[in-house]
Amino acid sequence: MAMTQTLAQSATPVCWSCGSAHEAHAQLCGSCGKLLPPVDADYFALFGLPRRLTLDVPALEKQFYRLSRRLHPDLYAQASEQERQWSLEKSSLLNDAWRTLRDPIARTEYLLELEGIALEEQSRNATDAARAAGTAKQQIVPPDMLEEVFELNMQLEEARMAAQDDSGDPELVANLHAAEKNYSAQMEALHTQLEQLWSAWDTALTAGDATAQEEAKQSLVALLNRRSYIRNLVRDVRQALDSIAVNRGENADKG
Ligand SMILES: [Zn+2]
């Protein structure tokens, strides 16, 4: 056992139980099958993946369930306290990793954070830059959308008043429906663009091209900001339409 301890600190990690060498991110010993202690690994490394954004999610899902069964705390009910603890820690980490990597947006945000970009920080910087330029605007309004968003906000305000006194005119409702359709279509278009940026990032990563990696990261940040902004617009428009519909329904019941 003392020898095992010494070897564990060398470049190749070895199993605490049988002393066989294993890969850095292995979960179980290939020789004796014992659970290995948790190591400091990011979610990609946990699945033995490079930090590529284009992922085969069905394949990842299979890997998740396979690993999940092997690490399951029930399997270690009779094992040592330490192994039970490792099993709990590893299962929990595995669940977090799967939830994050299977989701396109969560995966992208996670990668950006791993790559040293704090997304909220980015938005703040954008605001500061806007202020410095003498244009105090909301933090993440994409500049090319300022005009249409101003127009939309007027309509939303009108809808709020209409919801209160039941005066929603058909043109307003039609405009809001058109806006909902327009922004929903933009959300879908952004998803296609997102996948293109994933490819750009993956290619730059494989080529070890730091400049292209940096460009891909900045484009991803801009896209995520735009997406989150448009998602909020869709939400606001739907709420406005709902409130008008509910109000009309109530009045129809009374009459
Ligand atoms: Zn072993």
Produce the secondary structure layout:
Elements: H1 2-8, H2 43-46, H3 57-71, H4 81-102, H5 104-114, H6 119-132, H7 146-165, H8 170-207, H9 210-254
Helix pairs in contact: 3-4, 4-5, 5-9, 7-8, 7-9, 8-9
The gist of it:
This protein has 255 residues and is mainly α. Helices cover 69% and strands 0% of the residues. It has helices at 2-8, 43-46, 57-71, 81-102, 104-114, 119-132, 146-165, 170-207, 210-254.
Question: How would you characterize the overall build of this protein?
Answer:
The protein has 255 residues and is an all-alpha fold. Among the domains are: 1-37, no CATH class; 138-254. The protein is built from nine helices and no strands. It has helices spanning 2-8, 43-46, 57-71, 81-102, 104-114, 119-132, 146-165, 170-207, 210-254. The longest helix has 45 residues, at 210-254. It is elongated and about 75 Å long. Bound molecules: zinc ion. The site of zinc ion has 8 residues, from loops.
Helicity, as a percent range: 55-70%
Ligand catalogue: zinc ion
Describe the global form: elongated
Q: How large is the count of helical segments? A: 9
Main beta sheet, described? none
Provide the low-confidence segments as ranges.
1-9, 134-139
- Roughly how many Å apart are the termini? 84 Å
Task: Give the H and E element order.
Answer: HHHHHHHHH
How big a fraction of the residues is strand? under 5%
List keywords for this structure.
255 residues; mainly alpha; disordered N terminus
